[in-house]
Amino acid sequence: MILQAMLAQTLWQRFWDNPLYVNALLGGTAIAVMCSLLSVFVVLKRMAFIGEGIAHAAFGGAGVALLLGLVLEEVRPPLARDAVIAAFCVATALGIGVMSRRWRLPEDSAIGIALVAAMALGVVLLDLRSALLQQMLASGSLTRGDIGYTPSFHDILFGNILFMRPEEVGVAWVLAAVVVAAMAATFKEMVFFAFDEETAVVFGVRTSLFYYGFLVLLGLAIVATIRSMGVILASAMFILPGASGRFWSNRIGVVTILSILIGVIGVVAGLFIAVWARILSPGPVIVLTLFAGFLASYAVHPLRKRRRRRNSPD
Amino acid sequence: MKDKTPHSEPYVGPDHVTEEEILCVDGLSFRYGDGTEALRDVSLHVRKGSTLAIVGPNGAGKTTLLRIMLGLLPGYTGKVRIAGISPLEARRLGTVVSWVPQRAKMAWDFPVTVQQVVRMGLVGKTGMFRRHSRADLEQIGRIMGLLDIAGIADKPIGEVSGGQQQRAIIARALAPSPALLMLDEPMVGVDQAGQGAFAALMRQIRENFGVTLVIVSHDLRTVIPECERIACLNRTLHFHDSPSKLTPELLNEVFRCDLTGLLAAPQLTPRSPGDRHEHHDHHHNQGGAGE
Prior knowledge:
By secondary structure, chain A is mainly alpha-helical. Chain A is built from 15 helices and no strands. Helix content of chain B is 30%, strand content 21%. The two termini of chain B are 25 Å apart. Chain B is built from ten helices and nine strands. In chain B, helix 7 links the parallel strand 6 and strand 7 (212-217). At the A-B interface, helix 9, helix 10 and helix 13 of A face helix 2, strand 5, helix 3 and helix 4 of B.
């Protein structure tokens, strides 16, 4: 007992003494709040694959930002780089929307196309950047010190929540506030839009605005997320909390609040587990914690029995 | 706009609609993007407060016509006026035309209550960033009482019966007090007893809300008792008159199959209130189809 308490004490101490951990906790909470809120509608509106597509598009955005950074000094600070990635992600999100709504391409095809095109573009641009960088270094027009820290392929793909800087935490909270405010202000329309889009149009909901607006919010939230979760795992944040919350209630308000709670608890718990274990990267641990929460939600949720009873042939 | 006839509307009067003819379709034609003709020279005239049934086989253009009248499908030729304005304007007003979609096409496994579904009907009327007014919410309470779903207001929509889901989306359509209510295939998947209940429900809605009904169906049996006018559609209009003048020959022409037996079937006669199923009436409506 005493040993356990001491262990907890040291973990607690170790956590709060390290600004990296504290930043990760603050930033992670902001990300959890906005992503979990969006995830409710991602799940209900069956848009999970769009989140995946936009997240992968961030890889292309990173390629653009890093290449631009060689020639434009303004794009070198991390926040400016993130702004370029955000623009790229939002453009991709809108591109997916236009392809599926205007060009009448099936949505999953539109996402698949955007996803591979953005990934390939990212690799090509990063290759170009390496070649150009070598040339510039050799000619002396640039020194290593000029460009500062450059994320590696691995960093972009998997991210690391412990690398969140204080200013990035601030940006994450601003974005979270924007997402929460936008969703709260239009909640009744969003619910109708997700429930029955075609009928919502007839009742005066401007569904195109909601569709594209939602894609923009997703794009912004994803950019805030890839820094910590990486391109590959970011979409977990947009599916798991909403899917877990859905098990618990048949009321949209309750589902939303529970999803946010589950998301925040999952991220915080995952971060603590990773810090406690010392050798694990927090991103995948957070995803696994959320996945465990999803399985647990299914196992114990009160609707399960009722649903089974209704589905049984009698 | 001039008011030609005095109306008695006991419950809700859509007062912005003053023309006697609420729906006017004149020489409407429509082609799909690939040039296929969907509708040719369709003309319909619906008097305020009456009921029109649009029937026709699958692929007759019923849904296309409905979508045009709802302002969802541009690019048609001819004239369409709802309460004197275009379908698009009517839709944007949010209180002129309302819609009951096909129940079977909806995803009911969604975490909302019956009351939340009904309140969705107010979004256009209330507007973005605003809360529903107290008067509108009280009105919704009355509508739900009349349609006998007040007792299940807080139940999840996925857990109530099919008939109750149907009444919830009808209540939603009535929520903004529309002048014109369109129902898309309301009888799909409804059994015989349910059909009787539905006919009674339509009668009750007309009496209480003074709303004009346009019912689109491929099923002749269910729509005829409750409507003054029937329109037989198969790309073009084959008939647009009182159902009593409908002949078997004409039906055969529209549906391209022998339906003679249908006209003699008992379903074509007005039902008595006793036929109802899971439905309570709050008002007396002894009469058959309103004239």
